[in-house]
Amino acid sequence: MTEKQPPRFCAVDSAKAGDPLAGTATHAGRMLLISWPRRTWTRSLRQARDMSHELLDQIETLVAGGRRVNLITRRDQPAELHRLILYPEARAFDVHREQLPRFLADMNAGHCLDRWAGQHQLLPVMLCCTHGKKDKCCAKFGYDTYRRLDKAIQQQAMPMELWESSHLGGCRLAASVLVLPSLRKYGRIAPADITPLLACETANRPYLPCFRGHGGLSPARQCAEIAVLERLSARGITATTRVDAGESRGESRAIVPVHWHSGEASGTLVAHCEVRTIQRIDTCADLEEGPTPSLCWFAVHVETVNDPVESAQESYQSSP
User: Fold this and answer.
1) How far apart (Å, rounded) are the C-alpha atoms in residues 123 and 271?
2) Tens digits of per-residue pLDDT, 212-259?
3) N or C: which end of the chain has fewer CB within 10 A?
4) Torsion, Cα of 73, 77, 83, 87 (10° steps)
5) Given the DSSP bridges, would you call strands 161-165 and 184-186 parallel, antiparallel or unpaired?
């Protein structure tokens, strides 16, 4: 009798393959989050089985206009009263199901939404992907992480609004989290990461061990910023950063200046990044096919341009 093999997960294979977190955070800044019970989600990040055709048409019109739509859920949200959260507007609305098509029609027509009695979304929103119908890693690793985050946030009364979310990208990096409005993305969140991640986010700074990057930056610029933050952190410096918009780059290399500020100290570091090929599995659906070549950005060197903390000879080396 053939021995039954243990289940495989793309997230486990991805970590073993050296698949990097940095540079994987690209995400749309224009978003609409719609609360909807998870039991009716489909494989689509924005569709549920019990959505009307009229509502689905309005959602697809929004997407065609450049707005990403994700479904979200949590236990205390009524099934027929839907919370809608808009970014970058940072506005929230509670809309009854029968009124949703009309609300989205107003959005699509560019009408003022004031008549819908919205409110400012004051708290940061943390989305944790639990979209098991999309990928089993998001069910296995995502939901456990969501429960742990929820427990910690409740116990410590943290100023954070947590939701389960449909697909956020990068199933192989589960458990995956997106924080809004900062567009910071995280991956491979383990139980030991819960408390320090929440502490960093409450202080409005990235938690580097699981940080994938800022969603609004290019992959090369994400890698550059993370490499600089890690360089500074190794020297006991917690800094805010500004990444130059126009990196000098070729097809497979980029040179990215990153400006940092910490208290009265500031400086500039330049990250050299390059594309490398790794063999990886992107989703659990690809497990039988096996690894395929994928191009990934890596920060391979950081040099000093204008930095009072370090000498010009020091450099940072990283390997995949």
Assistant:
1) 33
2) 999 999 999 999 999 999 999 999 999 999 998 766 667 789 999 999
3) N
4) -50
5) unpaired
